[in-house]
Amino acid sequence: MPTVTIPNLLGYDLQLVDQNTFNNVLEDNRETLLQIFIRGNPFRGNAGFNETAKNSYHELLKKSIVKGLIIYGSPYILDWFTTEISLDLPWVFSYGQMAESQGMACQKLFNLSTAELREISQNLGDVFI
């Protein structure tokens, strides 16, 4: 999974979070690369993005520990985040959530050349989560 392995090779620690463990992140002050995997549903006005989630993300962004943002899947979620993030926070959006999309998003966010991405990818090996 490029979304895990590429940031890890660049010094980020993995922390998997869901709605039940989000408060743990709010109590942590480590610099964070926030990656969100969510599917949108245009027929449900909020695309599955409820007020509790919005409040939690708002609190996290307010702490200024988020150093980059990648959103996979839903442009509806992107719309909300673009009103919340600072202008200097780098972010990437991808409709796809598959490994190739993850690699491309990380390449763009971390400004990796194709050669650098290829070198990192060769060092990844198999990762099971």
UniProtKB/TrEMBL annotation:
Keywords: Glycosidase, Hydrolase. GO terms for molecular function: beta-N-acetylhexosaminidase activity. Gene3D superfamilies: Glycosyl hydrolase family 3. This is Beta-hexosaminidase. InterPro entries: Bac_GH3_C (IPR041518). It is an enzyme of class 3 (hydrolase). It holds the Pfam family Bac_GH3_C. Its EC number is 3.2.1.52.
